[in-house]
Structure formats: structure tokens, C-alpha cells
User: What shape does this take?
Amino acid sequence: MERDLIIKIAYLIASVLFIVGIKMLGKTSTARRGNFISAVAMLIAILVTLLDRQVLSFTEIFVTILVGSVIGTVIAQRVEMTSMPEMVAIFNGFGGAASVLVATSEYWRMAHDAGYSMEVVVGVTIVISVIIGCVTLTGSLVAFGKLKGLINGRAIMFTGQHALNAILFLGALALSVLVVLEPNVELWMMGVLFIALLLGVLVVIPIGGADMPVVISLLNSYSGIAACATGFVLNNQVLIIAGALVGASGIILTQIMCKAMNRSLVNVLLGGFGQTGSAATTDGGEEIVVKEVGVEETAMLFDSASSVIIVPGYGMAVAQAQHIVRELSDMLERRGTSVKFAIHPVAGRMPGHMNVLLAEANVPYDKLIEMDQINDEFANTDIALIIGANDVVNPAARTNPGSPIYGMPVLNADKARTVIVCKRGMSAGYAGIENELFGYPNCLMLFGDAKSSMTKVVGELKELMPA
Amino acid sequence: MNAESLIVLLYVLVLASFVGFELISKVPPTLHTPLMSGSNAISGITIVGAIVAAGPEDMSVSKWLGIAALLLATLNVVGGYVVTDRMLQMFKKKKK
Assistant: This one.
């Protein structure tokens, strides 16, 4: 009796620490300590669970935890900051998988008592846990594959897709009812598992590359909800509290991302954005005529500029150009030029992706300015340098009601005196639409790989202004 | 599980969700990625269930499922916290 009480009190303490930890995670000054506190909460929860009466054999548990910890630490230490979206995606998947396995394990244990009749509440919580966990697992694996480029990052659509999803969903529900009614028939459970795994794949494949921030946030939320559902299965409050915190956080991030793209969540989830936009490219009529610029000229422009705003995008991450960009910014600052970074909420492949990359390159976080704060500054800025961003600076979002991205909040980079766009080629952005900014009279195109272009510009600048 | 304990759990769920919404709606965009990986680590709390599921002495299917869950949950928890710490350590204000 006493042992159970100790466990319950420890879980309560852990829950409180999780809440405190996540609160501290919300402020830059306390974030690191917040993460530590939440890790302590986890440790308390783990240690005290080892006291549980049902835990009788420890060898396998310790070995498994040891192996998992070593692998987890190695992955976490080695992963490149550019690959954070993939890492978060795959870890979401692990979380979902763990929930499914726990719920299935519980089901197996109970269903194997002959003649067992499952309480409806228990059955319902188990199937909910299994379905959410499975969707999180395979959905995250698909997201991981898309981000890694293992599978086509574009939206994959086929006719009858939504109908098929609806049928599968109803099928999963029907089988779930059977699981509850006939818990001894394992086939039903297998069916639920199979369909839910398939559903996870199907709901993520129609969602394309730049919508990934939304998908990852949503899957993050699901992994929390899955943990929450497992809490109901096991009648365990700490799982419910921790899971609900994660679920809420994921949902909020999802909303922020949707708002930043001026799209509803349903619109993102139905997918296929930009695939049907071919009409938009043609009805623009005239071809956009761009002005090219070379590295020497770019360096000279920087040399005479007194204020610069850098707009980074996913292309900077792909080219691993963040370090050389920081070097450029340091160099300009040393000669008295003001340098700021303008961060669009959906720049990159996950919320806050650019901030992490630039932090890694030692750019102080107070130099990164949010869209709403910096948009009025462009008009008084000599140069807006756009590196690997496209749709987030497309003025059509403000001016052209016919554009698919019309209404999306964008950075007003076009208002700067000179706009320099560093880009590989003339390919359209993710949304599949031309960027009319490139044809503006104040816009210059610096074609080439972001990293090598920037390296050359920095080299030229060194000659122009010897230290 | 009886109806009464289910209701208690639902109370816990609803209140915790409100706390979550309140806390997280104020997080600045700079911290979105660490928040995500940090909360991702928290979702590994399923590890508690996995330990119990992996606990029995006899080697049953149920136990093996528990061990698999334990491995994945540990990866999730340890990897999530370590990478979040690594990231947060890089966030610096301007020196001097």
C-alpha cells in the first residue's frame, strides 16, 4: 500500500516539474534550465516506476534503457542542425510507436485470459491509443522520408484519395468496435493496426515540402495525444498530463504555422498545394525579365550600403550557407553597416528552423527579427539580401488577388532600395508560382549555390576593405 | 476502470490541456524548434507504461511488445532532451 502511495506522490511531483519545465522553456533566458527540469521530471517518473509491483525482472529493462540511451545520445550529438526537422519527425514517430506498443501489450496481456470480456472503457481507450499512435508512427516516417529526400517531397495525389481515406477510417472504426466486443479474437486488433498504419501514410503523402512545418507540428501534437491515450489505458495521470502538454503545444504551433501561410488546417491536410497552380503561372502573361549581377558587383553594393537586412530561407539550410552568411554579417558590422535578419514564421522546414541554424552559426538571437517587427524597416534599408527564400518574399501575396498565395503574410523585401536574390536558378518556389519580385527594377539576381556565392562575395569584400 | 475514475482522468486531461495552451501560446518564435524537440522528449513519458509492460518475469508476447516500446521510448526521451540542450546552448545574446 505504501509503495503505491510513494509512486503516486512521485508522479505528482513529476507532473508539476513537467509544467514548470515547459513554462521555463518558453523564455530564452530560462529555456535551458527548463529543459533540464523537465528531464529531471522524466527521471523521477522512470525511477519510481521501477518500484511498481508489476515490474519483477530488471535485467532486460536496464539493458534496453542502456542501449536506447546510448543510441539516443549518439544520434542527438551527431545530428546536423539543418537536419533538425528530420530528427524531430523520426522521434515523433518513435513516441507514437511506443504508445502503440504499450497499448497492444496491455491488450495482449488481457485478451489472453480465456473468456475475458473487455470493459468498454478499457477497450475504447486501447483502440484510440493504437490508432493515434499508428498514424503518428507512419505519418512521421513518411514526413522523415520526404525531408530526407528518400521519397518525393512533392505532394503525391491520386484520384479517390479522400474517399479511400474515409473508407479506411470507417473500416478502422468498425474493427475497433469488434475489438471491444470480441477481445479474444486477435485478428480484429491486427486489422486495426494495419489500417491505422496505412492511414498514417496516406494522410501525409499528399502534403508537400513547404507545408512540412505544419505536418511536423501536427505530428508532434499527435505524439502527445497518443501518450495521453495510453495514460487512459493504464489509468496513469502523469501520462495524461505530460501528453496533454505536448498535445497543446503541438496544436498551438500548428495554428501559428497555418496562420503564417494564410491557410486553414483542413486546406493543408487535404494537400496538393501548388500542384493545381499551373494556371497561375500561365495567366500571368509576360515572361519575367530579370537582371543578373556578379559577385564583384554584389561586393561593391555591400561596400557602399549602410543598412542590410538578410532574409534566409530553406535554400540557405540546404546549401549549409549559414556560417558564411554570419561571416558576411560580421564583416559588414565591423565597418559600421547595420545588419539584421528577417525571419518569416514558415521559413525552413519546421517552426523556428532558421533561428536554430543561425544560432548554430553564432548569430546572436537578438539580431533575428520577426516579420511583423521588421516589415516597416525594409523601406529604409539599402540592401535586402534574400538567400534561399522565395514564396515568403513574393509581393504577389499583397498585390495580386489571382495568385494562389494571395493574402499570405510576406516579408516586404521588395521595398528595400536594392534587393539581391541569391538563388540557384530561375525555378519557381514551392508553391509553383513565379515570383514577380525577380522582375522588379530594384531586384538583382545572384545566380549560383548560396554557399559558394557568399564565399566569393566575402572574398571580394575583404579586398575592398582591408582589415 | 469504473466511470468515476474515468471522469477523474478526464478532469486531469481537460485541466492539463488548458495549462498547456496557456503556457505555450506565449513562446517566442525563436524558441519554436527547441520547444518542439523538448516537448517531443516529454511525449516519451510513455516510457513509464513501457517499463510496466516490460516488467513481468515470463517471456510473453506482451512483454516483448513492452521491451520494444521501452527501446523506442528511451530513444525518444534521451535523444529529445540531449538535442534540445545542445540547441539551447547555442542560443546566445550579443556578446559585450
Summary: Chain A is about 60% helix and 5% strand.
